[in-house]
Design a protein that fits this description.
single chain, 2 domains, 0% strand
Length: 511
């Protein structure tokens, strides 16, 4: 099941990410870079809304995974789901109303729009509020389906809806109305459809119970400790990952903020390569810990960490080294690529270092341990906020990007040591050496060799060829350098060769 879920996550999230990225040049073409800055801010609003989640979404994921391991009854898990639904709907309603009430102030006093009318920006915020509220409730059902390990079904549904969301938005801009208000109205229509579909899938995936689920305070109290820890982590993580975007939305013009948003979206595509791994691994790690299967948990831990280093690491190295060609090939806009390239390299570096911590973080959560991440994030917030306040006025968006990269370097070089004092005590240096260092080192060498030996290309076909060669070499070298993955690949190759050999032998004997 783990392998099937991993493949489904990669295919599903890969397609979803593609749908999210493919149409951005068209959004900028029809709306302009300033209006695209509003779309970037829409993503920030959705991220901040997860603060009001109060740890419910990751907790529901964990409890659904525990249900598959026999910890919950069908009735108790339905009660928990219904209780979280009621709370989520109430929060969503308050959020939508709150953003509507603040829309005028946000448009006139917070943002620095140069070309868009203030009324247009205010209307966009109002619609954003409604869409953000709907997507908040979506998260409850997404988490439940993933926790139930129905990830093949989830990714199929999610991919179809993401396609409709992206293609429909382009169609609206091309043939109905090329305005930011029309864009967000379409997002609202698709969010309503998505909410209905995900709710239906969730309840169909649950086994029948003696009665329907009902709001239950005992069910909520049962998850209070873990959810409280997750709420603290969520709040601090939001400060760490979104404070730069909030500050820059005030300090930069809306058009400059659009460039930063563009680089942020492209760099965030790297999480598509680590998200499917952690999404598949977390339920399995939780199940192994619940059943006290420590040896298997350690194996899965290193296997997951190496997968992240190989897939996300090789892609991140290519993105860092070839940032400007990637942007130019994608947007067909040399000025846009030049203005965003350094930002993309720095943000990709920070995201890579952040992604390396995902498997260790998921392992902590599988043990029910949220305290370490909370303490580390408190220290990090105390560092990053003044660092951004100092760097951004002096160095602009690039200063904030450098702070993000430095913060995540601290996680990898310092923060991880505290985890290994309590869990997986003897696995630290294996993680550093085999799981992280070897795959990344070989990826860097391969990418730099291509950059050095292959001349720069201007034509799109030439650029695409160079990127394909660099990506293939970095991925292959990282795979060979990762012991567990190398063993699996070579074993598969031997089995394949033996199968081909037998087929040839049988064919010769038949002749």
């Amino acid at each position: 099941m783990l392998k099937r879920n991993l493949i489904a996550n990669y295919l599903g999230q890969g397609w979803t990410t593609l749908m999210g990225l493919a149409f951005i040049p068209l959004y900028i073409k029809y709306l302009g870079i300033e209006a695209y800055g509003l779309i970037g801010l829409f993503g920030v609003l959705q991220a901040w809304l997860s603060l009001l989640d109060m740890g419910m979404t990751p907790t529901l994921n964990r409890e659904m995974a525990r249900f598959t391991g026999g910890t919950h009854s069908a009735t108790s898990i339905r009660d928990l789901l219904r209780s979280i639904e009621v709370i989520a709907l109430g929060i969503a309603a308050l959020v939508g109303l709150g953003i509507w009430a603040a829309s005028g102030w946000l448009a006139s006093d917070w943002l620095r729009a140069e070309n868009l009318p203030i009324d247009t920006v205010a209307q966009a915020f109002t619609i954003m509020g409604a869409v953000t509220a709907l997507r908040f409730v979506e998260g409850i059902y997404r988490s439940a389906i993933v926790g139930l390990q129905r990830q093949v079904l989830y990714n199929a549904v999610n991919s179809a809806l993401a396609t409709l969301r992206g293609l429909g938005a382009v169609g609206i801009l091309m043939w109905v109305s090329p305005t930011i208000e029309a864009f967000f109205i379409w997002q609202g229509v698709i969010s309503l459809l998505t909410l209905g579909v995900l709710a239906s899938v969730t309840y169909r995936a649950l086994p029948k119970a003696e009665r329907d689920g009902q709001f239950s305070m005992p069910a909520l109290r049962g998850i209070g400790s873990f959810a409280g820890g997750m709420m603290g982590i969520t709040f601090l993580t939001l400060l760490l990952t979104q404070v730069d975007k909030i500050m820059l939305s005030k300090l930069l013009t809306l058009s400059d903020y659009g460039y930063y948003s563009l680089a942020t979206v492209v760099a965030a595509a790297l999480y598509m390569l680590t998200g499917p791994i952690t999404q598949a691994w977390f339920p399995r790690l939780s199940e192994l810990h619940a059943n006290n299967q420590q040896a298997e948990l350690i194996t899965k831990y290193h296997q997951g960490a190496q997968l992240v280093s190989v897939f996300m690491g090789s892609a991140a190295v290519v993105m860092i080294v070839f940032a400007e060609p990637i942007l130019q090939l994608w947007t067909r806009d040399a000025e846009l690529a030049h203005r965003s390239a350094t930002l993309l390299s720095l943000l990709a570096l920070g995201n890579l270092l952040n992604g390396l911590m995902w498997i260790p973080y998921q392992t902590q959560l599988a043990h029910g341990w949220t305290g370490l991440t909370t303490r580390i994030n408190i220290v990090s917030v105390a560092i990053i906020v003044p660092a951004i306040l100092w760097a951004t006025p002096r160095y602009g968006a690039e200063g904030a990007a450098w702070v993000w990269a430095g913060l995540n370097a601290g996680y990898v070089l310092i923060g991880i040591h505290f985890m290994y004092r309590k869990i997986l005590i003897y696995e630290k240096w294996r993680w550093y050496g085999q799981d992280v260092f070897l795959p990344l080192l070989t990826s860097i060498v391969a990418a730099l060799l291509v950059r050095r030996l292959v001349p720069s290309m201007v034509h799109p076909i030439g650029q695409l060829t160079v990127l394909a060669v660099a990506s293939s070499l970095t991925l292959a070298s990282a795979t060979v350098a990762a012991p567990l993955l190398r063993q699996q690949v070579f074993s598969r190759m031997i089995i394949l060769l033996m199968h081909v050999s037998r087929r040839l032998k049988n064919s010769i004997q038949t002749d």
